Automatic annotation (TrEMBL):
Membrane topology note: Peripheral membrane protein
UniProt GO molecular function: cytoskeletal motor activity
Record function comment: FliG is one of three proteins (FliG, FliN, FliM) that forms the rotor-mounted switch complex (C ring), located at the base of the basal body. This complex interacts with the CheY and CheZ chemotaxis proteins, in addition to contacting components of the motor that determine the direction of flagellar rotation.
Coiled-coil ranges from the UniProt annotation: none
Name of the protein in its database record: Flagellar motor switch protein FliG
Any one GO CC term of the record: bacterial-type flagellum basal body
Protein origin, superkingdom: Bacteria
Annotated ranges, domain Flagellar motor switch protein FliG C-terminal: 224-330
Keyword field contains Membrane: yes
SUPFAM superfamilies (UniProt xref): FliG
Length: 340
């Protein structure tokens, strides 16, 4: 049984009591964070009010929240700025810490944007820039990474590229409002591109997941997916790179893949491979290395299927890693004819 008298709607609340109700509604984490910004006398008053409050009827809570909302709305519009943030921070942080935080924020407010633009595929970035005025494009190219600008500049056409270079040479410091407008426009465009690329990223993630699935699990999924989304699933399977695809690699890149794994991985993976794939691996090795690998395979005795699958998965991951580093080129899996 509560030892305190409940606060009813007719109860006249003091300022600390109203604040106490707001803090209780915020909860321990957010309320505690906000409490840290108060001075010691204010904390004492609110703590005392919370401790003595007892049960508060829902109507009282609603009345306090309504009053709080009305008072906040009476302020009208508010303006956020670095100076406004500085004033708030100085209320509860030392000056050196305030300066450090604002320096981090001001330094990163555009850094992420220009970094994100620099990471975009040059064709995607060129598509974004084609819609912009040349002066705006010159500003953007002067702020993204040099390697990104060098890739995208030729895609905009020689005539336009010449004009852009001239503008970049003559560029002056932009007013803050103009630069902010460019940044906001780019953020919207980049986010829109990211949204359009979401499906492609999801497909890429699915392909990676499929590549790592146990073969029996994947076979079970395949049967169901081929019934429900046959066209989409067929497209995903075409993008997959699995252990058996290593037979498409020539001797030099395959040797690089084999050197990426250590211990028993290679002989274990080949013990469970189809004969033609195993022969392809062995044929890619010098005679002495081939003989040693065959001896090691014969000496292994019976092996568990799970261990074989894991070893084969490591070889696939090694191939994908080398491909991402530009060390080897994986088979494309398409049927298009190459034009010399």
């Amino acid at each position: 049984m509560n030892q305190f008298s409940p606060l009813r709607k007719q109860t006249r609340l003091s300022g600390p009591e109203k604040s106490a109700i707001l803090f209780l509604c915020l909860g321990e984490v957010r309320g505690g964070q906000l409490m840290q910004q108060l001075d010691v006398p204010e904390i004492r008053k609110i703590t005392r009010a919370i401790s003595a409050m007892g049960e508060v009827q829902a109507e009282v809570v609603e009345e306090v929240m309504r009053e709080f909302g009305e008072k906040m709305s009476s302020y009208g519009g508010i303006t956020g700025s670095v100076e406004a943030a500085r004033g708030l921070l100085k209320g509860f942080l030392p000056e050196d810490r305030v300066a450090e935080i604002l320096e981090e924020i001001e330094g990163s407010s555009t850094g992420d944007l220009w970094g994100d633009l620099s990471q975009l595929d040059e064709k995607v970035l060129a598509d974004v820039l084609r819609k912009e005025h040349n002066q705006t494009v010159a500003v953007i190219l002067s702020r993204i990474r040099a390697d990104a600008a060098a890739k995208v500049l030729p895609l905009l056409g020689q005539e336009r590229a010449v004009d852009l270079v001239e503008r970049m040479v003559a560029i002056e410091e932009l007013p803050a409002d103009a630069l902010r407008s460019i940044e906001e426009s780019l953020r919207r465009e980049v986010l829109a591109k990211a949204g359009r690329n979401a499906e492609a990223e999801a497909e890429k993630q699915l392909v990676n997941v499929f590549n790592k699935l146990d073969s029996k699990v994947f076979e079970g999924l395949s049967r169901e997916l081929e019934k429900k989304i046959p066209d989409k699933f067929r497209m995903l399977k075409q993008k997959m790179f699995v252990f058996s695809d290593l037979i498409e690699l020539k001797a030099a890149p395959l040797s690089k893949v084999m050197r990426e794994v250590t211990g028993k991985t290679l002989p274990l993976a080949l013990r469970g491979a189809e004969r033609d794939l195993r022969d392809h691996f062995l044929a890619s090795l010098p005679a002495r290395s081939r003989d040693m690998l065959e001896d090691e395979m014969r000496a292994m005795g019976p092996v568990r299927s799970r261990d074989v699958k894991q070893a084969q998965s490591e070889l696939v991951e090694a191939a994908l890693r080398l491909a991402s580093q530009g060390e080897i080129e994986l088979p494309s899996g398409d049927d298009e004819d190459m034009i010399e």
